[in-house]
Design brief:
The chain contains eight helices and no strands. The protein is mainly alpha-helical. The chain has one domain: Cytochrome Bc1 Complex, Chain D, domain 2, CATH 1.10.760. It is globular, with a radius of gyration of 17 Å. 24% of the residues are buried. The mean pLDDT is 87. The structure holds heme C. Heme C (HEC) binds next to helix 3, helix 5, helix 6 and helix 7.
Length: 120
């Protein structure tokens, strides 16, 4: 009995805090331009200036590149939430709502869509 109550509670809190299933890439784009473009560039290909400053690999900051695009939206969302430990990619868990993270991931995945012919 106790177990049922606990799992009901868990479902309840999941339903209220987790990202709604729908993602909105257009909304994600706005968030991207506001929060991410400084480092990733307005075109999401990565800022060469920032890469130089951070001594980071520009290819890893290019979100249109294969490395990012071969991930699914969930993996991209996890990186947005947790950042990339040991790099300059910050964690946005405290700064963005779950819906915003979902929208951002959808936007980033949409950037790879035109070239999706190869593979899938
Ligand atoms: C302070 C600079 C900075 C900001 C702001 C920033 N990033 Fe990053 N991001 C980086 C760097 C640097 C990397 C590459 C890390 C590495 O070396 O693996 C990265 C990597 C990533 C990756 C993984 C790419 C891959 O293929 O491994 C994703 C996805 C990403 N960022 C998304 C975002 C999103 C979305 C935002 C805005 C909410 C954002 N970043 C804001 C610096 C930043």
């Amino acid at each position: 009995m106790k177990l049922i109550v606990i799992s009901l509670l868990a479902v309840g809190s999941w339903a209220s805090s987790a990202a709604p299933a729908k993602s909105d890439a257009a909304a994600g784009r706005k968030i991207f331009l506001a929060k991410c473009s400084t480092c990733h560039g307005r075109d999401a290909k990565g800022s060469a200036v920032m890469a130089h400053l951070f001594r980071a690999d520009l290819a890893k900051m290019n979100l249109k590149g294969e490395m990012t695009q071969k991930m699914n939206a969930e993996d991209v969302a996890k990186i947005i939430e947790n950042g990339q430990p040991g790099t300059k990619m910050p964690a946005f868990k405290e700064k963005l709502k779950a819906q915003q993270v979902t929208d951002l991931a959808a936007y980033i995945k949409s950037l790879g869509a035109p070239k999706a012919s190869k593979g899938r």
